[in-house]
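To make this tangible, this section ends with a sequence with its structure tokens:
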Amino acid sequence: AGHDVIIVTGDRDVYQLVCDPHVKVLYNKRGVSDYALYDEAGILERTGVTPDKYVMYAAMRGDASDNLPGVPGVGEKTAAKLLDKYGDLDGIFAHLDEQTPKLKENLAAHEEIVRENAIVMELLR
């Protein structure tokens, strides 16, 4: 049996490592005393996506703390909705014609950046 691990951090990138029941994140939200313990359900509630989709979600949304631009007009809610409907980046980019004209334009113009973000953001285990 594996060991239980709690990763203590202020970096949301580690959300992708959460794996029930053994790996959780104790996220430092603000200062030295404001923490939240997240399991898979907590990550889903906080972001709208499961930990295994967090990298794709963050790749579209962008990450200012890592100096990675996202898609204009795609925030947390839109990224989560797209992943919920299409499953992954390939699914999203294969269905651009189903998006509003502005979202379609922005996604198409930033596909390479999103895919590069996803590669850079993935933490190796």
